[in-house]
Input
Amino acid sequence: MKVLLLVAVIIAAVIILGYAVFDNAHKFEPSECRNCHIDSERDPRSLTAPVTELCRRCHKKFSGKSSHPVGIIPVTAKVPPDFVLQNGKLTCVTCHNIHAERFTQFGEKTYFLRRQVTGREFCLSCHTTMIPEGGHRAVLGVAHLSARFQVTDSSQPLDQLSMECISCHDGIAGKLTDFGAGIWRHETSSHPIGVDYQESRMKDGNLKPLSSVGKKIRLFSGRIGCGTCHDAYSRLPNHLVMSNVGSRLCIRCHNL
Output
């Protein structure tokens, strides 16, 4: 048994090492340094273009709707010293050290994040304002007295973004993968998440064709999620993806 355990540990170590050596997308050749650096040896900080522009040359799919905003001065977030700002502004390298791939304690890739954690734990490195005044006691008072999310179909998994949202806003302490489609209760109304839009439209004639919904309304593999109506980086009330004055957001999907 001990021999098998030792073999398993060695295999795991080899796999992790293999990822670090062979699966590093940023393992550049010396001749490639000039693509980003004016003189990488004398002054590594001398870049041929702003760092965000350099990152987007390869990471073209990322936009303001799908990633953290850059080029802004953080106001509500408390940025720690090991997170790099340029002229006081956020850039891609604020959160990512593009020349140092790290792994979590479980051997999972962190995609060049500056700390060996991912997800909510990494976000809390800066966004400590997510924790209500009063700390754990305040969270318990909100979460456990009246849960706001009710699972209706555990066979339909939620998208990752919705699970992250619920983990904070409903104070769920269990495994997020155990939660499926359900109903989220707002202060004065409720809305399903995790349900397929097209299937719901077939059952409910009040939903508009998907072709007329608009680009601001995001679906996740065809399903409704928290990110369908909300954007964590939106400056609108309740972080909506668009104004709901006159029910403008609601009528993007619903025939009212």
Observations:
- Residues 134-145, 172-177 have pLDDT under 50 and may be disordered.
